[in-house]
Amino acid sequence: MKKFVVIFLLAAIGVGAYFTYQHWEQQQRQHQAEYLELFGNVEIRRVNLGFRVPGRIETIAFEEGDFVERGQVIATLDNRPYTENLAVAQAVYDRAAANMERMENGSRPQEIEQARAQLAEYKANFILQKADFDRAERLLPNRAISQAEYDALMAKRDESVAKVRRAEETLSLLEEGFRKEEIAAARAQLAEAKANLDQAKTSLEDTSLLCPNDGIILTRVEEAGAVVQAGQNVVTLSLKDAVWVYVYVPEPDLGRVFPGMKAEIYTDTNKGKPCMGQVGYISPESEFTPKNVETPRLRTNLVYRLRVIADSPDTILRQGMPVTVRLLYDEMKNEE
Which bin fits 320, alpha (ψ -120 to 50), beta or left (φ > 0)? Predict the structure, then answer.
């Protein structure tokens, strides 16, 4: 009797174990049908920030690890040389603008009247000098005057003629105004001065290093007092909203993956609370599985790289962190 009981119990245990195993296997198949589990590492977009102009660093407002918002001033240069350059450019522009206005407006009436009066004065003087010379020309044959006196009177007459001609040309220029070529040259000079002024303003603005996007200061490469060149790295910024995970999918599963597919991102510290994301990029080329995300058995397998973008990344996801990604099949079915 006891032997029969023992056999019955063993049979019951075996049947129970069989159905338990079947149930577990069914659950595993169901989970496998719901998601594809992949492994990878977190990648965070970093930006090396520097000034567009050279100079001496005056201030750096943040320390490593500080959170910085878009538009905040991270660092500044000593702007005195650029302030002085702006003042010079402003003066050159003002002078070119005044010259352009003078040419467009032409000569003032007072200047024209002054030129007319001077021409009348030179003509009157010419009449006087010509009368003296004509008198000398009649007296010279009779030796009433010397040759030297005659030559002096002729020189004064010729000088009066030259002054009259010069005054007539001056009056004509004032009445006609500036030529089109001169006005065009003045306009080009004004445009050049305006460009130099804008460039000086931009250079002065570039002495402030602004944060391009929300992020965290990773490194302070330079310190206050250092002289840096244009484009030289001053700080490194980790962008807040550009966090993704690179995972690798085997070729047999590639046909089940597509851009926009929902994903859950798990780390060792948040196993029960994943970050949500979606597939953003699928590489068109195959490659060997990287050593840091696979087992020795899979080292020679060809895989395709996926980029899974985190929808709302938080401080849990860190650069280089190993993660587990589940690509959700049922999630897409429900949306359909």
Answer: left
Would you say the CATH fold of 47-80+204-236 matches that of 34-44+243-335? no
Q: Is 57 exposed, middle or buried (0-12, 13-18, 19+ CB in 10 A)?
A: buried
Rounded CA-CA distance 35/42 in Å is 20
CATH class label, 47-80+204-236: mainly beta
Q: How many CB atoms lie within 10 A of CB 128?
A: 13
**Alpha helices by DSSP H, the chain:** 2-34, 80-105, 109-139, 147-176, 180-205, 329-335
Region 75-79: what's the mean pLDDT?
A: 96
Its sign, for the CA torsion 167, 168, 170, 171, is positive
Which superfamily does CATH assign the domain made up of 34-44+243-335 to?
Efflux pump adaptor protein, beta barrel domain (2.40.30.170)
pTM above 0.90, yes or no: no
What residue segments make up the domains of the chain, in order of their start? Answer: 34-44+243-335, 47-80+204-236, 84-202
| pLDDT tens-digit series, residues 284-309 | 877 766 655 555 555 557 788 888 88
For residue 146, give both structure tokens. Answer: 């010397």
